[in-house]
DNA sequence: GCATAAACGAGACGGTACGTCCAGTCTTCCC
DNA sequence: GGGAAGACTGGACGTACCGTCTCGTTTATGC
């Protein structure tokens, strides 16, 4: 099964979709998001400002939420930083701090909100989560498995839970707002987590290797 | 300094607000929330079903979101379970499992969504967070400080971060949905955290009390 | 440069306005007017009963008053009777009696009220006046000028004032209600006016011919 | 026969109505009428600006229209000018010109509108008509009957119709607005009417008796 | 002089309607 | 024959007033 859906190589009948319209829509959606926030991103407003018909928008996205996610994704990297150097701990700390930095912005809050508000089952929501969340998780996962291979750490419990405990606090503070997203926050997360991950041979939290 | 502003003991002029109307609104809002979800909670629908004028609703709440939060709050306990027994670890595990249980429901998802979607600055949103989130935190905090006093654990970093790492993963999975909110999830969180908190004496994360 | 904007013969983009919707609105408005009167003609009621969205109504008329006028106009002739026969006096009498007949109905009162209540400057109010009032005036004017040409009457003063004195009493009694709009009313108006219009050659209003 | 129903001299129990409140209401209503017109005269606005409770207003008037009429009546004379001098024609002309003058004002239009819009059957509407309309008619009637007694004119048809033809054109132009309410308008009405009223001895406007 | 009763201000009540915004769908032209 | 654009139906918004109804207060009369 080969796919030729990305670009119609053989003549599809009918008028081809206007790439200019698509770009204008995303551009306008992004402007509105930055200027007025998620709540003001209505299909109608986008259509008017992008000089585009509403059905043209609906042809690409099923509702305003999906458009918002698409606009937020199209915008800028969002990917975790490139592979760092140094010890696993340093690399993990850099990773969390990069996450913090990325989401400690107006856009960060918008992304978190969009994700929380979205229909959990929609295709785009999954893509969005994958893009925004899972990439960070995979990066962290590789750091952790590398570290385990090196003997730097011992993964005693489900690594998924470790990943949750590393990333969740950032989004939690972002959405709940009970505590600031300070610089030291990332450091503290790593400190705590490292205590849990340190390989031990005595009594305490962890089992001896032998 | 005594306050009598909560209940007007001395005569305020004008017809007093109808407590019956207020209750009917909250009751109806809650019914709609349970039956149809947050998206269907419109002021108009509540007004009609509660046999109440729309302005009466707006007198109490500024929009449907605030009403939703009020209805979710008025509903049921939401408080963390009463003080458990046994070791600190067992009590903390019971605490996290209770949190999991509470939010692994339709209503749990609704609460999380309402919180994520709400205007972060509104009075009611703050009250809601306080009610839903902070009570759990305070409960966990007291377990942790007790445990520290007993020497069961050693709090080496900011306790706020510890609390985040204990609670955030639940909401994270709830909103992002990348992994299930299984029973073992709570156990794994506690396992990992306990490794970080255990007092140790050798190298590694912690020192033993000895 | 020719204009073809009055009627779009060549394609305007977008869905054309639904003539069916427009007719349903006017039809419903008319039904409500007849059944319940001007005061009950609300946009909301019309929208609901005509199975039409409120914005569709507002796309054509700016408020309920304009809709009322449009409905009253669209309804039935409202025009003065066709040219009669006989002497100018007989034709003028028939004219006034037709006016009386037309407005001695529920609808007549409604029309008069709508006209009195309307914003004097609105486009539709002008059109309405033109349709309801001025057509009658023009008809009467032609009778009078014909009669003058024949020597049947002599127009000694401003013909506009004559027209006012012929028509105004009908609306006056309609709105004020101090006296009935009886059959003999029209006759009396003509009698009085004819005394004023009779051609004379001597002193006073009139002189015997011989 | 003495009446003591206007002011209760014998003791009615309870607090007497506040004349100050009544005056404040009428005063405020009048201010709003002059400043913003009939459409803005709401009970709520009057209550607020007059520092009065809404029920106090409803105690006197059944709705905003009645209040409007009351305010318009309470305002200024509205009566026809005192008896003039000179010939009947001169006095009648003065009368019509006074009517013109009175209603060629913002307030004139408001009065005419209020009268046209009012429930024809309500007590106050009747009183209002009586006050505004009938007083003028009675004045004109007395001029006409005096003139007939003097032989200045001959009333050949229903005097009510004559009165209508004298007064109606003013209100007609006021409400319909098809022609200006100029100074010469009154003169022309009188000219035309006088032609109809002149006593004759031959045939002409009227048929000789024999 | 003290109870009674009505009118007072204030303001919340259930409602109706407003005029607007936006969601999605439908219909027509144009490419 | 699909894309584009605008009018469509319809649901909800938040506001303005309606006319009614408590409230607690004030101000008279009459027991």
TrEMBL record, chains A, B, C, D:
Q: GO: which molecular function terms?
A: DNA-binding transcription factor activity; transcription cis-regulatory region binding
Q: Which InterPro entries match?
A: Homeodomain-like_sf (IPR009057), HTH-type_TetR-like_transc_reg (IPR050109), HTH_TetR (IPR001647), Tet_transcr_reg_TetR-rel_C_sf (IPR036271), TetR_C (IPR011075)
DNA-binding region(s) from the entry: 42-61
Question: Where's the HTH tetR-type domain?
Answer: 19-79
UniProt KW Transcription keyword = yes
- The answer to whether UniProt assigns keyword Transcription regulation to this entry is yes
Name of this chain's protein: TetR/AcrR family transcriptional regulator
């Amino acid at each position: 099964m080969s796919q030729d859906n990305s670009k119609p190589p053989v003549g599809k009948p009918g008028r081809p979709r206007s790439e200019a319209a698509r770009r204008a829509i995303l551009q306008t959606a992004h402007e509105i998001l930055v200027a007025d926030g998620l709540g003001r991103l209505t299909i109608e407003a986008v259509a008017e400002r992008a000089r585009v018909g509403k059905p043209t928008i609906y042809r690409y996205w099923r509702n305003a939420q999906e458009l918002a996610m698409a606009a937020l994704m199209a915008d800028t990297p969002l990917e975790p930083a490139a592979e760092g150097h140094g010890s696993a701990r340093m690399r993990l700390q850099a990773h969390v701090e990069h996450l913090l930095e990325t989401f400690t912005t107006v856009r960060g809050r918008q992304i978190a909100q969009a994700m929380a508000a979205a229909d959990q089952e929609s295709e785009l929501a999954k893509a969005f989560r994958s893009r925004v969340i899972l990439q960070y998780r995979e990066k962290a996962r590789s750091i952790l498995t590398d570290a385990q291979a090196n003997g730097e750490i011992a993964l005693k419990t489900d690594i998924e839970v470790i990943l949750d405990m590393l990333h969740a606090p950032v989004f939690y503070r972002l959405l709940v707002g009970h505590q600031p997203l300070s610089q030291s926050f990332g450091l503290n997360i790593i400190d705590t987590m490292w205590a849990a991950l340190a390989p031990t041979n005595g009594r305490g939290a962890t089992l001896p290797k032998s």
